[in-house]
Amino acid sequence: MRQWVTEIKALNPSTNQMKVWGGPNIPGITKLDAEQYCQNNGLGYCKIIGELIEEIPCKNDSYEADFENKISYENLN
Fold first, then answer.
1. Of 16, 23, 50, 71, which has the fewest CB atoms closer than 10 Å, so is most exposed?
2. Residue 63 belongs to domain spanning
3. pLDDT tens per residue across span 39-53
């Protein structure tokens, strides 16, 4: 299923300033579907900002991209 990226606006407890934080990835066939998922599952504070297409992990003990183990969300059934 397609995955959607969210953001959350909340106070940073260390500085008491408003910040934008990365939220959870949300499943949904469409963006509207993902927004409804948020509303129905106690995540109404999350804003859908785009579709997650791919995740590329780092190789062990480094920050080098490991393209061989990427996860493509476009091709998942």
1. 16
2. 3-72
3. 999 999 999 999 999
Number of domains within the chain:
1
Q: What angle do CA 66, 67, 71 make, to 5 degrees?
A: 105
Q: 8 near 46, Cβ under 8 Å?
A: yes
- The answer to whether position 77 is within a domain reads no
Looking at the chain, the number of H-run helices and the number of E-run strands are 1, 6
Check if the beta carbon of residue 14 is closer than 8 Å to that of residue 40.
no
Backbone angles phi and psi of 57, in degrees to 5: -75, 170
Percent of the chain with pLDDT over 90: 90
21 located within any domain:
yes
Pairing of strands 71-72, 54-55: antiparallel
Flag whether 39 is in a domain. Answer: yes
Contacts of 57 (CB under 8 A, 6+ apart): 65, 66, 69, 70, 71
